[in-house]
Design goal:
Length: 353
């Protein structure tokens, strides 16, 4: 794609919602937006405060590269296609919105919509509509219907991923933290000791509770011996819901979460950063597996739109198509166990912090 140097956007898209269009187009777009309730807040809520807008734009210029590396609420310096591909772009979450600045170009600063405007050369409602389409956000009344069960399993990858873009905010505006079942070791124990929240699991993984068993497992060279040790020495959870007993038929309530296992990875950190910048799935929790050679990726799903098993089919296809990674067949099981290791660098969505 042709690179262009930075040019300060014309006008103020925050104050002027529709600019640069004919009157007929302006009226039409305004009517559509009024019906669809498409606005900056809705888009930001489904793009990690706008971080995924930056990632999407940058990916148009650097298709085979990790375009953004997120560390807490700030990204490491990234290449700026509007400054000669120099690694001078800084992106971070400030006061609930993603913003950027360039260390060399003083005027290259603003929010995700300013940055997207540089690429698309669109403003206001036209820009919002373009982002809604390209990011597959499905914001608006026209996107409320879901395919039938068979279509969900067979249709192109984006169909299943697009319907997962939803917020977990209640009517009060407070974040609803997902809860699910917690099981004490060994894995043959199938009766939960109680419920646990996503934040509590994050704290367990980040702390030292599982440091000793994690270090011991990673010292074991024999694969069979390692599996046996893990089964005996690690507590586990069922991220997808609360259960009376760990079996699919004993589900009490689905958590709205789906856990994906990535095993035997050659570049754990590289895939981690790509997943954090994924354009379709918000990352709720992401951590290195007990073995140290894999990742556990926890993402939100909306089971009012499709079943857990239907999501499994779509997500599996998506992972293979996007990352060249096969999902473990057991991922379709809602009662799947996930062992809890020690990972000081575990990631949790900033909305919970």
């Amino acid at each position: 794609m042709r690179k262009i140097l930075y040019q300060k956007p014309k006008g103020d898209h925050k104050k002027q919602e529709v600019t640069g269009m004919s009157r007929g187009n302006e009226k039409g777009v305004q009517e559509v937006l009024a019906q669809m309730e498409l606005n900056r807040e809705a888009i930001s809520g489904k793009t990690h405060y706008g971080v995924k807008i930056y990632a999407h734009v940058l990916r148009q210029y650097y298709k085979d590269e990790v375009v953004l590396v997120l560390r807490g609420r700030h990204c490491l310096p990234a290449k700026n296609p509007f400054n000669g591909d120099k690694q001078t772009l800084h992106v971070g979450i400030v006061d609930g919105e993603a913003r950027h600045h360039d260390t060399e170009v003083a005027d290259c600063k603003g929010d995700a919509y300013d940055f997207a405007q540089l690429h698309y050369q669109l403003e206001g409602a036209e820009l919002l509509t373009k982002l809604n389409e390209e990011l597959g956000l499905r914001i608006g009344r026209g996107f409320g219907n879901c395919d039938s069960a068979q279509q969900v399993g067979r249709n192109e990858v984006k169909k299943i991923t697009q319907i997962t873009q939803f917020t977990q905010e209640g009517k009060s505006g407070e974040i609803q933290v997902p809860e699910f079942s917690f099981f004490k070791k060994p894995v043959r124990n199938t009766v939960p000791s109680g419920g646990v929240s996503l934040v509590e699991v994050y704290e367990k993984i980040k702390g030292i509770s599982y440091q000793k068993c994690t270090n011991a497992l990673r010292m074991i060279q024999d694969e069979k011996e390692a599996r046996a040790y893990k089964a005996k020495q690690f507590d586990y959870v069922t991220f997808s819901g609360t259960f009376v007993k760990r079996e699919n038929s004993a589900l009490v309530q689905h958590s709205g979460l789906f856990a994906v296992d990535f095993d035997h990875l050659e570049d754990v950190e590289g895939l981690k950063q790509r997943l954090l910048a994924d354009p379709y799935f918000e990352t709720e929790l992401l951590f290195v597996s007990p073995s140290g050679h894999g990742l556990k990726w926890v993402i939100p799903i909306d089971i009012t739109k499709a079943t857990h098993q239907q999501y499994a089919v779509g997500i599996s296809n998506y992972l293979l198509h996007t990352y060249g990674q096969k999902m473990d067949a057991s991922g379709k099981d809602v009662a799947r166990a996930c062992f809890l290791p020690c990972d000081p660098h575990v990631y949790i969505h900033p909305k919970y912090t």
